Amino acid sequence: MVLSPLAALALCAPAQDGAAPLPGAPAIPSVVSERLARTDAADDEFAHERLVTALADRLAEALPEPNAAGSPSAAQCAALAALFGDVVAVALPGREVPSEGAPAAVAPGPVRVRFDVEPGAEPASGPSALPAERLDRAEAAARVASAICAVPGAAPWKKKVLRAERLDDGRIAMRILLSPRPRAVATATATATGRELRDRREHGRLELAIEWHTRGPGDARAALDASAWQVAAVTAVSAERIEATHGLEDVSEYVLSGSPRSRDQLVASIGTLGLQLDASLGLGFLGHHGVAVGDINGDGLDDVYLCQPGGLPDQVWVRRADGTAVEVAAQLGLDLLDSTRSALFVDLDNDGDQDLVRATGHEVLVHVNRGGGKFPVAFALPIEDVTSLAAADVDLDGRLDLFLCTYGSPYTGSGLPVPYHDARNGTRNALLANRSAAVDELRFEDVTDAAGMGGPDQRFSFAASFADFDGDGDADLYVANDFGRNHLWRNERTPEAPFRFVDVAAEYGVEDVAAGMGVTWADFDLDGRSDVYVSNMFSSAGNRIAYDRRFHPGASEETLAYYRRHAAGNSLFLQRDGAFEFTDRAGLGLWAWGGLAFELDGDGRPDLYVPNGFLTGTNPDDL
Fold first, then answer.
1. Phi and psi of 501, rounded to 5°?
2. Spatial distance between the Cα atoms of 446 and 430, rounded to a whole number of angstroms
3. Highest mean pLDDT: which of 45-59, 82-96, 147-161, 460-474?
4. Measured between alpha carbons, how far is 22 from 335 in angstroms, rounded to an integer?
5. How many CB atoms lie within 10 A of CB 485?
6. Contact at 8 Å (CB) between 186 and 202?
7. Per-residue pLDDT tens for 367-415?
8. Which band of pLDDT confidence, cut at 50, 70 and 90, is reported for residue 440?
9. Which string of b and e fits 129-159 if b means at least 16 CB within 10 Å?
10. What is the largest CA-CA distance in the chain?
11. For the chain, first and last CA: distance in Å?
């Protein structure tokens, strides 16, 4: 009989409650027996993680439900009081005041209201900005329950432990984000598909800093029992209410109804495709396949190019006047089976129509739009691992040039970042100068080295975006890099050197040493200057681990700060005189993969769309 690893482990497990070992069970190796018998917390590297999870679960179970009145019941207060010590230091919001730039009354578009202790106070400096009161168990529970109930929304609560660390005196300091499900406060049903549209919703978020301490002295094993811990302090780090008078309706089924068979191709998950397609075709388990939008047939409606993993044909969805779309990749000769990572619709030969640039696993292909549904390949550049594309007229010669981001993925064995927090052993990006001399005749020259971008230190680049951030009339470039610092390439072209860039990210304070995944430019504070939003990785597990005292022993504080920043999430930089200023007003962002600024609700202010998520197990708190 051949045993699976799990079955073998079960047979090796020690008997429980005095039961005899299974007949014929193999003897437990001494090293396994010693490992199973360990009870000292110092010997278990996962003990802190399990304890933090258990404490967060205890807190979540005791949370009162949000309600408009903000009045918890006696039972809800008692449930929280069971977690508290005899005396608790409490620093919570007292009244509502509008955040800077937001109207006091609900107006069209999202309205964010920050809860502060004093009018005009801004707890940006952290928990210390709020005065703390020392209250007995019952009063503290009532105060905290009221603050939690006041957060608008509907059950159930969603919790995320942002950070947890054990302090020198043995306490555990935890930062946790609580957010209920949005609730509808007004609805409208007049939609194109007849489905109900939530026209106005409200919800909120409350970030708390909580300190836990054990009830009394005990051995290390007792300290791992979550029930032995009590809350010693609760501080509101930030709280806000968000009211939106516009909603979004998922109309995918209706729009894609024009081509049911092609639509069905999009239903399968990466996991399902992995069971059906050969991995050598280019099916990555992360699903890094992009999308491009452009009017390819000149009818005034934007069409969509969907990049697909290797083994599946790319798709081109052409929109129709009735709001549906039909898939026409085969008719255009674009139903290619290569693994396509990125695509871009852009007019490269100045003939007024949209050409197509595609990044496959081993080359970049430029398809010229010759009209009549023909997109032949006009130019090909052998280059590996291109993740995204950007276009701008860098040298101001009237032709759009191309920038290619490359990423040697450690997840597919292409390369490992060294050092992890500031890797310089990535792959070479490419700047291509447009040398096309005639319509439909596309030619490009690699000018990466001449532009100063081809030095020995290369990064793991995920995304890039052009903008004239310094207002001198030419296109500058921000590049978001994974595993380290980003680039802000300032265009310093001259007549003698039409392609010349200098990295000024450090000078302007936007290196943002983290896990850069996406970048978008917009004037977010409406001061007439370009600001930049960077999508990064947020991981609650990563934050807990990076702040654990046993993480990376011997590392400098600077190195530890880099690791902690790596898992801290997105960044919004507002341009000031000669520099950029970081702000957290854009929110958490979660595990973000990109970002796009655009005007959604007609209020004149740029909004953000940020795709996010990762491979998650059955426990949604994993990431």
1. -125, 150
2. 7
3. 460-474
4. 59
5. 20
6. no
7. 999 988 889 999 999 998 899 999 999 999 999 999 999 998 776 666 7
8. confident
9. bbeeeebebebbbbbbbbbbbbbbbbeebeb
10. 87
11. 39
Separation of alpha carbons 403 and 31, rounded Å: 55
One-letter amino acid of 462: F
What's the rounded Cα separation, in Å, for the pair 542 and 536? 13
Amino acid at 491: N
Give the distance from CA 279 to its chain's centroid. Answer: 26
pLDDT at 35: 37
Contacts of 216 (CB under 8 A, 6+ apart): none
Q: Where are the alpha helices (DSSP H) in 74-149?
A: 74-81, 137-149
Element containing residue 312 per DSSP (H, E): none
Place 589 in a pLDDT band, splitting at 50, 70 and 90: confident
pLDDT value for 220: 57
- Preceding omega of 156 cis (within 30 degrees of 0): yes
Kindly provide the b/e burial profile for residues 35-70, where b requires at least 16 CB atoms within 10 angstroms of the residue's own CB: eeeeeebeebeebbeebbbebbebbeebbbebbeee
Tell me how far apart the alpha carbons of residues 326 and 320 are, in angstroms, rounded to a whole number: 8
Separation of alpha carbons 491 and 210, rounded Å: 47
Q: 226 is written with which tokens?
A: 């979550």
Cis-peptide, bond into residue 110, ω within 30° of zero: no
Q: Tell which residue, 260, 256, 166, has the closest CA to residue 211.
A: 166
Kindly indicate the confidence band of residue 285, based on its pLDDT and cuts at 50, 70 and 90.
low
Between helix 47-62 and helix 74-81 the angle, nearest 10°, is: 160
* Structure-token match 């449930």, residue found: 79
Dihedral angle, C-alpha 565, 523, 589, 56, nearest 10 °: 80
How many Å is the Cα radius of gyration of the chain?
28
Report yes or no: 64 and 151 within 8 Å, Cβ to Cβ: no
Cα gap 149→80, rounded to integer Å: 12
Return the structure tokens found at 109: 């578009």
CB atoms near residue 224 (< 10 Å): 19
Q: Are 218 and 228 in contact (CB under 8 A)?
A: yes
Tokens for 618, please give them: 């059955």
Q: What is the pLDDT of residue 29?
A: 39
Q: Provide the 8-state DSSP code for 53.
A: H
| pLDDT band at residue 315 using 50, 70 and 90 as cut-offs | very high
Residue type, 559: T
Q: Is 618 exposed, middle or buried (0-12, 13-18, 19+ CB in 10 A)?
A: exposed
In sequence order, which residues have a C-beta less than 8 Å from that of residue 395 and are 6 or more positions away?
401, 433, 493, 498, 499
What was the pLDDT predicted at 389? 97
- Contact (Cβ atoms closer than 8 angstroms) between residue 349 and residue 436: yes
